[in-house]
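ok so I'm stuck.
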Amino acid sequence: MTAGRGRRLGVLLVPLVLLLGACSSGGPGTAGDAPVTSRSASPSPTASVTAAATAPRAPAVGSCHDLTLTAATRPVDDGEAVGCARPHTSVTVRVGRLSSLADGHLLSVDSRTTRARVAAACPASLASWAGGDETARRLSRLEVVWFTPTLEQADAGADWFRCDLVSVASSDRLQRLPGRARGLLDGAGALDTYGTCGTAAPDARRFERVACALGHTWRAVDVVALPQGARYLAADLTAQGDDRCRAVASDRAGGDLEFSWSFEWPTRTRWDAGQRYGWCWVPAA
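replied:
not stuck anymore, here's the structure
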């Protein structure tokens, strides 16, 4: 390394697929997990409810749940709520009513139109519940996932959908949430716990995206806005993003002449879902 110059670790043009990317909203997902581009149909009757299904009561906003990572990606959650003073990984931030009609036709709860409506309704709850500014939310591990009743429960009259706030700790688990999650990103140092970090340099083979509360050596510290009409992985935008991240790293270096940085594009899945920002990475202090 030559003194007086920064060291670019690499512009990441093809980042790994994100876990909750297309079914949730927020910061970078977990590298190495399969994307969820749409919710699957509700489980079969034998897998979800008894033959004599009844309509469950609508969930309560503010109720807490101890979900696994796998459960958070399913279209239905039949688990019971837990007290928010107990360990939990999700909190219900919105409960809405399903619309059963489209162009005069009756919709099933697992129809593409119904799923798309819920997918459009839930992500806005991230800002209203978690707080923080837009950059903080994009840098965080916080996501919003959603659930609907089963087909049998919907037939029995259940007409609600549920939006839950979660934080993705790593590729195999969710992060525990505090008893009071509203305004989670408003506190000083919130991203030290719920921010996006890496176990190695972003272009390293052993890299894994993790919450900053876990062991890490790199950290996502800023976002780079990308134009709505841009071409994916456009060379000029890559150069601009790299320049931006270099400037961020230089400012954070506090006068040191040697520093490292990396600019990361969103995945193609995120891009196609409408995400128009990338991330700046620097070594953790």
